[in-house]
Amino acid sequence: MIPQKKGWKEVPLAGVCWMSSTEYKTGDWRSYKPIWNTEKCTRCMFCHIYCPEGAIKHDTETNEMVFDYDFCKGCGICANECPATAIEMVLEGKE
Amino acid sequence: MKRLSEWKFTSKEFAQIPEKFLSGHRACAGCGPAIALRLVMKAARGPIIATNATGCMEVVSTIYPYTAWKIPWIHTAFENVAANASGIESALKILKKKGRIKDEHVDVVAFAGDGGTFDIGFQALSGAVERGHDFLYVLYDNEAYMNTGIQRSGGTPHGAWTTTSPAGKVIPGKAEYKKPIADIMVAHEMPYVATASIANWKDLVVKARKGMEVNGPAFLHAFTPCPRGWRSETEKTVEIARLAVETCTFPLWEAEYGEYKLSPQSKVIALKPEKKKPVETYLKMQRRFRHLFKPENKHVLEEIQSEVDRRWQKLLKACEIA
Amino acid sequence: MAKVEQKVVPLNGDEAVAYAVKQCDVDVVAAYPITPQTIIVEKFSEYVADGEVDTAFVCVESEHSAMTCSITASATGARTFTATASAGLALMHEMLGVASGCRTPVVMSVVNRALSAPINIHCDHSDAMAERDMGWIQLYTENSQEAYDSIIQAFKIAENLDVMLPTMVGLDGFVLSHTLENVSVLPDEFVKKFVGIRQVPRVMNHEGQLVPFKLDPENPLTMGPLDLYDYYFEHKRQQEEAMRKALDVIKQVHDEYAKQSGRSYGNGLVEAYRLDDAEIAAVCIGSTAGTVKTVVDELRENGIKAGLLRMRAFRPLPVKDIVSNLAGKKAVAVMDRACSFGGNGGPLFHEIRHAVYDLPDRPKLVNYIYGLGGRDTTPYMIEGIYKELQKIAETGQTENTVQFIGLRE
After folding, report:
1. Chain A hits for C227, Cβ within 8 Å
2. B97 domain-assigned
3. Number of domains in chain C
4. Chains touching chain B at 3 or more Cβ pairs under 8 angstroms?
5. Does residue A16 belong to any structural domain of this protein?
6. DSSP H or E segment with residue C107
7. Among candidates A33, A37, A43, A42, which has minimal Cα distance to A75?
8. What is the DSSP string of C146-207?
9. Residue A93, pLDDT score
């Protein structure tokens, strides 16, 4: 969603930011998408730790690694670092 | 000398720490510095104020009106992040003393790239450390002025291609060697200096926490590859950071008041020298060193290896490991 | 009639400034020494060492860092002060824009001194004039008493929630800074009450909440982001608006202070000296105005209708006051203690000329550049200026628009 541009009278003082970056979805940047395999995964947390976007979270209730595709840029670090080869980078649209 | 606490946690516990450097920032895919910032922010132990020098991380995290910082944050200019931190820390101290703000400790963390640290930012850093302000300075070193388009900095290694030290017909990349910034900071006789690599995440996180705990200035030199500027594959960022340690190009150590101590990952190599990988395995992964693999530039490869070896031996001596 | 009892203390300009800062409950002072400001920081560090003030005194390693520390300390909610001159102000240049853009109400004393090269430690206004576009409120003082009074007023002006702009108070290097004067100082309690405790406005943050405008872990906000072409212009317009609001605020604070101290300086923006029925007048900034007043008095005794308009506020430019005071005057000499090289005159000349341009009865305006690098400007020279003004008033002709006075040809 592109925010409505505010006029100078409405804009907050001194250029203080008024939107969180989480409203800017960088997911559409990627060409490759990480696909996670729950059986192979050892829950080592490396993918969560090394993701530059913080787009991989560990859901303690379901014990699943949750990939936030709204923000994943498809860099492939998670797949490269995974010691259990539980993540595969697949061309977007071909998964 | 008071020992800094050893923060213990499991990976799973670490994964549950809330993020303070949020998604939606505009860093390149595979950005090393973004990993470092996320990890350092997870090491925060309570109220914290951060400040950045102009550079990649500042720009990608605060494109108006968006901000990726969940915590209070300020940016003013390129060469003065240490002075930023000095002002914040001084204000907090005096306002607390006067009872105008809550009497609780607030950590102050300054982030800067190698641009804002080695070169233009050095004066402010040296001054702030000399005055003994209580803050942690985190240098995310991607070895060039990346934000303005990959120009060489004092942190660019010998032989590397950058846009202002290109690999030309006469001069094959940067002629000068990397400024030993962390050693220069140790010479300030400051409470805590450490080097860390994003590949050794736990070591980095604990060192960041130690830096925050120190009562006085602390300096953390984080090694953060940049796929864009180093011309490497985006998925190899962490792997390259690992190789930098394994080849002793970027050894891991810490120094409390000038007393050097090797960190485990580098100590292993010190004790078993056969584990030290040749520097070529690291250089091969980055096309910024591609020209060095031509026969006419072989001497540069040798220069790089011998300089890595020389600095490694110097470090071992400082750590009192023969 | 002064309402508050005051005592007279012999102080030079720098000491008067330091004294005022001592009384204003300043939280952080970050400064770097440079002649002729050194006495301010030296005196203040004595106050700190003796426990007379509760202030964090940061001996920074350069003026650039001095302004940086002041900005971020102010952003953290502290009342901050710094001081500099000449090359130090020039070194801070980048950060002056940042202070204004970040809307941090830093107060700075600029002990006006010439810019290099060649290096010169004496008085002229080129240092502060070079910063006139940076978004700072600029007040210039005629004597050490006014410097003392203006520093106290500056905190109140800068911190006003409608203004929130950094403010610089200029005093002439060596002429005022190092010359002893009898300064009437107000009681500590009065000054502390006058400036009050620093308030901050509320602003919308990125979590959709209205939070106090300061760095505070309880209410996070992001200051100093990257603006692209879609918002920068709006942010700058806001600064301009604050400057416009400052015109009234400067007057209000001045009047409030005058009521209690018994001392006023014109209306706070400009001081009109025997200008009502004057036919010829000079416009001047700083300590030389004092000399001009003496000359004006002499001329008046000889029946010449001379007057002086002293500019106290240069930024924001008090256009209405300039226009109302100079309308109908036959000839006006604008005296500049700075030269805008290649600009056909000095900065004050440019501004006054453009301010009166739309007047149907605008006066003939000429420019005299004087006193660069501390060159002494004598009453005799100023008399010469008024003589030339008389000729212009009679003939209606201007021979030379821009002249240098006190210069050896």
Report:
1. 15
2. yes
3. 2
4. A, C
5. no
6. strand C107-112
7. A33
8. HHHHHHHHHHHHHH-TTT---EEEEEETTTTTTSEEEEEE--HHHHHHHH-S----EEE-TT
9. 87
Partner-chain contact A11 C234, CB within 8 Å = yes
Give the integer Cα–Cα distance in Å for C243 and A10. Answer: 18
- Label residue A4 by pLDDT band (50, 70, 90): confident
How far off is chain A from B196, nearest CA to CA, in Å? 14
d(CA C343, CA C334): 15
Question: What residue type is C96 in one-letter code?
Answer: L
CB count within 10 Å of CB B51 equals 29
Please give the residue range of the domain that contains residue C322.
Answer: 270-405
pLDDT over 60 at A24, yes or no: yes
Q: Which residue has the tokens 């976007």?
A: A53
- Chains touching C (3+ CB pairs < 8 Å): A, B
Determine the pLDDT at residue A30.
95
| Encoded tokens for C110 | 């600029």
CB-based burial of residue A61 (10 Å sphere; 0-12 exposed, 13-18 middle, 19+ buried)? exposed
Tell me what ipTM this predicted complex has: 0.95
Q: Is the domain of C59 the same as that of C174? A: yes
Whether C209 maps to a domain, the answer reads: no
**pLDDT: which is higher, B8 or C242:** C242
What would the pLDDT profile of B199-216 be if each residue is shown by its tens digit? Answer: 999 999 999 999 999 999
Domain total in chain A: 1
Q: What is the pLDDT of residue B1?
A: 42
CB B31 within 8 A of CB B59: no
List the 48-87 stretch of C: residues with Cβ below 8 A of B: 54-56, 58-62, 64-65, 68-78, 80
One-letter amino acid for residue C150 of the chain: S
